[in-house]
Design goal:
The chain is an alpha/beta fold. It is built from 16 helices and 11 strands. α13 packs parallel to α16. The longest helix is centred in the last third of the chain and has 26 residues, at about 320-345. The protein starts with a helix and ends with a helix.
Length: about 450
């Protein structure tokens, strides 16, 4: 209760995160030994400027939260410092803030930075590099904004690892028909569950620096790491530890959410986007867009505050919070291993280790006759497989074609969230179905 009261007193809003870990000087020295190419120490031109940004953003006007509101804030501060005015308070009659007037609020917010990044036409259209397999929201937003989707493939034969050579291939190929400006990373991976090593993250940051790419780091599963050989490293932390050559130049937006991790509070719709090295004028445009969309519910803000500022030793909630968190993550780790082991016992199914996140993305063998049947039903082969699985077992999974996959390979995504006994039942049903499926279409 003390914790909850403190949240209310400080307004429930997440504070800005700072760099973690070692000192920048010692970390930079270590990074320099790893990196083959040492860039110049001069600050370079920003990728995002008023000239290169989406011109539609500059056209947006929202006078309700314009310069006069900024001025009102300055006056309020002056009143707080005791500066005399011919009035004692600022009455904000500029916005319809019913809650401030005593009415119960109903509010909603959606945020994205891609709208600002997208610009141009023809070969100058913005290209956004996304992993394949990917979370379908990215391809949907890219399409909505009329940008170009640039696929780079994760290495399934190497536990879905990210290879910089593949990034370079995708980038060079994309330059023939668009202007790649954004590189999206999902770590831990969704739907693939891989956790990137620190060396991989350093390589990606160096690649983004070298190619002048804006980095988007989707890190919403950062608490879901199960493999004892893996550890989550935030892009921001690694960026700062690589030294000022990178930390002062690479533009990075990091994302986190209350919906995933050990919290699983999807209903609160709480999350944050932290952006560093953003051009000051672009930051003003971003604030304008967020102002147009108002703000998230207080409950979501409070939940997000708890995620980034959890109970600490000495607080009354700490012991119970720690027990529950460890229990949730421990159970997920057991279920990740159970899922991997049981899938790999089934002929025609291969599942990479589930290092993190909360999904399995096994590869399935689909016989030629099944592919012919799928074609007759005007379905992708893995859609046909998943539809049959649903119809015959009641188990609903998502076909891999919805996430993207290399041509000629087939997968499905399945969550590991059900209780252990129910998960065992699900896995056994999938096993039995798959064996019958192979026999039927042999």
């Amino acid at each position: 209760m003390q914790r909850a009261a403190a949240l209310v007193r400080r307004g429930c809003c997440p504070r800005t995160l700072g760099p973690w870990g070692r000192s920048q000087s010692s970390a930079a020295a270590e990074a320099s030994a790893v990196l083959k190419v040492r860039p110049e120490r001069s600050r370079r031109e920003r990728i995002l400027t008023l000239e290169s940004m989406n011109p539609q953003v500059k056209a947006v006007e929202y006078a309700v939260r314009g310069p006069i509101v900024l001025k009102a804030g300055e006056i309020e501060l002056e009143l707080q410092r005791g500066i005399k005015k011919p009035f004692t308070e600022v009455i904000r009659a500029n916005i319809g803030d019913a809650q401030a007037m005593g009415q119960q609020p109903i509010t909603f917010l959606r945020q994205t930075i891609l709208k600002i990044l997208v610009s141009g036409g023809g070969k100058s259209r913005t290209g956004v590099m996304i992993p394949i397999p990917q979370y379908p929201l990215y391809s949907a937003v890219i399409s909505e904004l009329d940008a170009i989707q640039v696929n780079y493939y994760l290495d399934e034969d190497n536990c879905w690892a990210l290879n910089v050579n593949e990034l370079r291939r995708a980038l060079q190929q994309a330059k023939e028909h668009c202007n790649p400006k954004v590189l999206c990373i999902i770590n831990p991976g969704n739907p693939t569950g891989q956790v990137q090593s620190r060396k991989c993250i350093e390589d990606v940051i160096h690649f983004a620096w070298e190619e002048k790419l804006f980095l988007l780091a989707d890190e919403v599963y950062q608490d879901n790491v199960y493999s004892p050989d893996c550890k989550f490293h935030s892009f921001k932390k690694v960026l700062y530890e690589m030294g000022p050559e990178y930390s002062s130049n690479v533009e990075l937006a990091s994302f986190h959410s209350t919906s995933k991790g050990y919290m699983g509070e999807c209903g609160y719709r709480g999350g944050y986007m932290e952006v560093i090295n953003l051009h000051p004028e672009i930051k003003g445009q971003l604030v304008k867009l967020l102002s147009v969309r108002l703000c998230p519910p207080v409950s979501g803000q409070a939940a997000m505050d708890i995620v980034v500022n959890p109970p600490v030793p000495g607080e009354e909630s700490f012991e119970q919070f720690s027990r529950e968190k460890e229990s949730v993550l421990g159970n997920l780790a057991k279920k990740a291993k159970l899922t991997e082991d049981m899938f790999n016992q089934v002929p025609g199914i291969h599942c990479n280790p589930l290092m993190g996140a909360m999904y399995a993305f096994p590869r399935i063998f689909i016989p030629a006759k099944a592919m012919e049947a799928a074609q007759a039903h005007k379905m992708a082969p893995d859609m046909f497989y998943c539809m049959k699985l649903l119809e015959e077992t009641g188990i609903c999974v998502v076909p891999g074609s919805g996430f993207g996959q290399r041509e000629g390979t087939y997968h499905f995504r399945m969550t590991i969230l059900p209780p252990v006994e129910k998960l065992k039942t699900v896995l056994q049903k999938v096993k039995d179905f798959h064996i019958k499926f192979l026999e039927k279409y042999a």
